[in-house]
Design brief:
The chain is α+β, with helices and mostly antiparallel strands and 77 residues long. The protein contains three helices and three strands, in the order αββαβα.
Length: 77
Amino acid sequence: MTEYERRVIELLISTHPAWRYEERDLPGLPRWWAVRYESLRADQRRAGARDVLGRTTLRRLARALARHDEILHRSRY
């Protein structure tokens, strides 16, 4: 993990503390993952929220987390 990646992960932790962040280097799968510490309610899942998000870059993961926050906000999380 590069210094830049470490800094982005630290920022994600401070901005989205409900998630655990992982880096996986498996062919054909996203490299960066965010996994919720606590499971979501059924109504939140129906609204489009997820317990696990995987993206190929940290920038894409950060955008997915921001969109996820919007979903939870709309579902009155």
